[in-house]
User: Which sequence fits this backbone?
DNA sequence: CGCCGATGTTGCAACATACGCAACGAGGGT
DNA sequence: ACCCTCGTTGCGTATGTTGCAACATCGGCG
């Protein structure tokens, strides 16, 4: 493991909090400012950081460009985009696209609600594994051994009174999700937000992503969020079809 | 300058092209695969890269998250967002937001056209300094010494027959832009695309960003693009007002 | 069913590289 | 005009990085 790279990435993380001077960065990292300067010079060369005329460092455009490239690489994102935009337009609610990667669930796209009440989420952030509806959908498709392993590693932080609190409860929930073909989050992560999520499958029937609708209950009560389910399922079916999934396949994966 | 960091960033750039195996990366960088492995381990720890079950490396979610943070940090982007979305909705054309930083002009936001003909551009990419309308707007506000220095450093690649070919021509154009308060790109970068751009100013009167409308001439001929100018100027005026610029200020900066 | 090849991982010694120090320089505030 | 802060440079040192070689693991193929 490379100390140098780790430090460089810590600099980036720190700059993610806001602009910093050389000395500030040196202090935070606990290294001599000469060291920080050289790391920054390398980062600046690749446009990962940018130094303004006042000698303050900011995150740079190279980062945006790379992130854009990375998101474009995810074929699923491009395929799903028009469908999710349509769902967002039709319902007016926040729509998320999430994927499972290496033991975590991350948001890879987001369409904001038209309502003034917004959710706190951002592309690239991790979804809570035991409470987010998209996580349930994605975990439910894992092979049982990995599913158990991942669930065993979860820290069951109780976000609200409804949050599932034990591995057993979550595993039971995942069985249910797997059987019914969709998942909900009934105020399990945020006390005032309900979500529904459904899987997107590729040609092999494996779940490659999950789409969800999230609604603060000041906008719609729980029951009415469930009424959005048909629209969500129509959307995920359409995206799955664009991914090459045979239309006759049922909610449970054909390979299961 | 840090060799290690430079190599790590080259790995990221390479992964921007697509997934890679350890050996592929070692070959491209021209270093031993052990070296690459350790760099990757550090990158993976911070979620900048992600290794799939088949041992292929991809760009990771940490990158998206950081990029999102960085874009949110740019206050101008948030302030301009609703106005630019409105302009995009009203005209149906591609709208860009760009900023000058450290000798280059980068796109920091983009709203796609509703027409099937799309432009090639992406948030984070650099705009051509001598042909893009947004570049002209941003360069036109620089203090004269810096303006001259930047112009002197430009490589006047002729993208089309209309591309300005000399520093003198560009400096003259910048004078004009400065006086009239907006810029155009009449097929100077892409033969079939015309743009208009206008400055966004903050409370001090300095240009902090530029907004532009880009239209392929299969959609609208040049003359009709110019007719979009009033809408663009109304938008940039509104954004400037939100930035605290006094409404009475004319096209030229009050400090000039 | 077992061998072979390809690919990722580990231990270790050599040495290049990144590190910190101290002195220098520039810019801004008082 | 002074001082004080903050970024930059040169240099010796040792720490962290490098490449090698051997090992482990997985999959394909005979």
Assistant:
């Amino acid at each position: 493991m490379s100390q140098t790279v780790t430090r460089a990435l810590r600099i980036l993380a720190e700059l993610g909090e806001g602009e910093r001077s050389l000395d500030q960065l040196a202090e935070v990292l606990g290294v001599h400012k000469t060291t920080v300067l050289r790391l920054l010079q390398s980062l600046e060369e690749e446009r990962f950081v940018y130094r303004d005329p006042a000698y303050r460092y900011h995150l740079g455009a190279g980062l945006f460009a790379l992130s854009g490239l990375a998101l474009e690489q995810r074929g699923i994102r491009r395929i799903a985009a028009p469908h999710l935009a349509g769902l967002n337009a039709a319902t007016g609610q926040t729509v998320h696209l999430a994927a499972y990667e290496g033991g975590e669930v991350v948001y890879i796209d987001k369409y904001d609600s038209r309502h003034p009440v917004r959710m706190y989420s951002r592309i690239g952030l991790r979804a809570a594994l035991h409470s987010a509806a998209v996580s349930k959908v994605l975990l439910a498709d894992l092979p049982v051994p990995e599913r158990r392993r991942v669930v065993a590693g979860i820290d069951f932080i109780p976000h609200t009174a409804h949050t599932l609190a034990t591995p057993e409860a979550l595993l039971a929930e995942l069985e249910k999700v797997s059987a019914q073909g969709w998942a909900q989050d009934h105020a399990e992560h945020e006390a005032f937000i309900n979500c529904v999520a459904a899987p997107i499958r590729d040609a092999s029937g494996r779940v490659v992503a999950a789409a969800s609708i999230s609604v603060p209950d000041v906008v719609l009560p729980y029951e009415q969020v469930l009424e959005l389910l048909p629209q969500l399922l129509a959307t995920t079916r359409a995206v799955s079809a664009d991914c090459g999934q045979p239309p006759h396949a049922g909610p449970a994966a054909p390979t299961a």
